[in-house]
């Protein structure tokens, strides 16, 4: 009898733990922003260029465009007036945004890692 109770209790604990972990908050892996080159004029850039900025998706890019139609940005820091763009996001964006000049932003090629195997540079080695 004790064995049946212990087994039932153990099964109940296992099922509860399994259900809790399955229904819990999803774990997301933070995505690293892709490397970019150039700057983005937030007063003139089209949607496609705004979305190249790190942490700016289509929704925030559309919000930037709507805001600038009514109130052009006077300084880069004004982007914090957009919902979802706070001080910390601005700190990550500020080197990539401007309010004057052309938009030159583009996705940069990621840096490639050099191979770790050594290549002999022996001049006496016969060529194959």
Rg from C-alpha positions?
27 Å
Helix and strand element order: HEEHHHEE
Question: Within the CATH hierarchy, at the fold level, what is the topology of one domain?
Answer: DNA polymerase, domain 1
What's the CATH architecture of one domain? Orthogonal Bundle
Total strand segments: 4
Strand line-up across the major sheet? 1-4
Largest sheet: 2 strands, antiparallel
Helical coverage, percent range: 25-40%
Q: Beta-strand level of the residues, as a percent range?
A: 5-15%
CATH class of one domain: Mainly Alpha
Shape: flat
CATH superfamily of one domain: Photosystem II 12 kDa extrinsic protein
Low-confidence stretches: none
Helix and strand content put the structural class at mainly alpha
Q: How many H/I helices?
A: 4
Task: Report the span from N to C terminus.
Answer: 78 Å
- What is the average of the pLDDT values? 81
How would you describe the overall organization of this protein?
The protein contains 4 helices and 4 strands, in the order αββαααββ. With 128 residues, the protein is mainly alpha-helical. It has a domain at 45-107: Photosystem II 12 kDa extrinsic protein (DNA polymerase, domain 1), CATH 1.10.150. The radius of gyration is 27 Å and the shape is flat.
